[in-house]
């Protein structure tokens, strides 16, 4: 049975005090049992506090990025060893903001994937087409290429540590979400691409999250689709009530 997952990508939001407040509210209000595995990804400087605060809860912690090198003269960067040494064993890679704003190529993302997996981290691998790709009918090609070029070099065994997150760029932070039918169509396609390359066992087991303007009022419909295994949530993850409404919509 593949896992249901709802992850909150906090991006560059929440200082130390605000992180503490949001985590306290999540801990206080999260149901004792949730169908979904719940993960939050605060910014680097607040990860250690988040790990400490969420110890003995069901909420996991993810980083939003990692550097591909083991260490060295890379001013401003964070290594996989640094993350795992503070108890962070999950990382978001390939996010469209990293691709577009920080010019991360498929090749760079592929090497970050390798480093994270080498350190036994779980990778939440993000990908998705831009509006122009969808308008030109090229969205399936783009998505397949991002998967092949950024991820498909990994071994079969590594898939146990991979979660896919389809995030159409045109739906991120825009308030415009893919329709549940568009999400399902793409998720089904993604699973087929994985099946062709790695076999049915892996394709059936891998969780495929949808991201892009998921809100309390549209989560249930999107999560109701058979190939949508949860969500990667941006803006709505910054308020405990909204995030938990999404968590319980699964
Ligand atoms: O980028 C996202 C999650 O990684 C989605 O962001 P929004 O939910 O704000 O559209």
Automatic annotation (TrEMBL):
Single Gene Ontology BP term?
gluconeogenesis
* Domain of life, source organism: Bacteria
- Where is the major localization of this protein? cytoplasm
Subcellular location(s) of the protein: Cytoplasm
Give the reaction(s) catalysed.
D-glyceraldehyde 3-phosphate = dihydroxyacetone phosphate
Q: What SUPFAM superfamilies does the entry give?
A: Triosephosphate isomerase (TIM)
Q: Which PROSITE patterns match?
A: TIM_1, TIM_2
What is this protein identified as?
Triosephosphate isomerase
The record lists the organism as: Flavobacterium hibernum
